[in-house]
Amino acid sequence: MGREFLDLFDNWATTYDDSVAGQDPQYQAVFANYEVILNKVTENSYGNILEFGVGTGNLTEKLINAGHQVFGIEPSQAMRKIAAEKLPNLHLMEGDFISFPKPTLPIDTIVSTYAFHHLTDEEKEVAIKQYADMLPQAGKIVFADTMFEDEDVKEKIIEEANKHQFYNLSEDLKREYYPTKEVLQNIFLDHNFGVSFKQMNDFVWLIIANKKE
């Protein structure tokens, strides 16, 4: 359920905002167009929102400023502390993509950025099935996450990371559960979603899934 990466989240908490701002050369390409990505997720969301992987609250702040009621889920205590300091009125709860407290209001849109790849493909399917059951007709899932067109593209990016001695990035790419486009598309289609993909940088895609009526 992604909790095997909790130490990584806790350790990254204090420097995460610096990384997304491009101050860590290893992850500059991963976070390229970061503000554009967050804005696109915000623009494509509606109604009451359930956000998984709140992190330090960067997307959350944009969603709240756009007038949405946001219920945040974050497994990392260190990340939750930072997000709560930024957004003291946020409904922020401990949990993960599969095991989480249910929001007190109906949810229209489920969002996440830079987090869904911490689930195995089997866990991704369990999660999407839950969301299909939770969302109303025409409900939405809007994710921005690392994924790859196919395994060959992934291997080439790992080779490129090693070439530049970006060994932390290389290890992340080998250790975490980055899906291919085909796998993720099939999961959404199997659970009655129409889905579109738009590549935002070399790593991250905007994924918009609409629950069919």
TrEMBL record:
| Domain Methyltransferase span(s) in chain numbering | 49-139
Q: Name one GO biological process term.
A: methylation
Q: EC number(s) for this protein?
A: 2.1.1.-
The EC class name is transferase
Record-annotated residues binding S-adenosyl-L-methionine?
A: 53, 74, 96
What GO molecular function annotation could you give as one example from this UniProt entry?
methyltransferase activity
User: Which Gene3D superfamilies does the entry link to?
Assistant: Vaccinia Virus protein VP39
Sorted keywords for this record are:
Methyltransferase, S-adenosyl-L-methionine, Transferase
Transmembrane segments annotated in the record for this chain: none
Question: What domain of life?
Answer: Bacteria
Protein purpose: Could be a S-adenosyl-L-methionine-dependent methyltransferase.
Q: Which family does it belong to?
A: Belongs to the methyltransferase superfamily. YrrT family.
HAMAP family, per database record: Methyltr_YrrT
Record protein name field: Uncharacterized methyltransferase ACFQ3N_04170
What is the species of this protein?
Virgibacillus byunsanensis
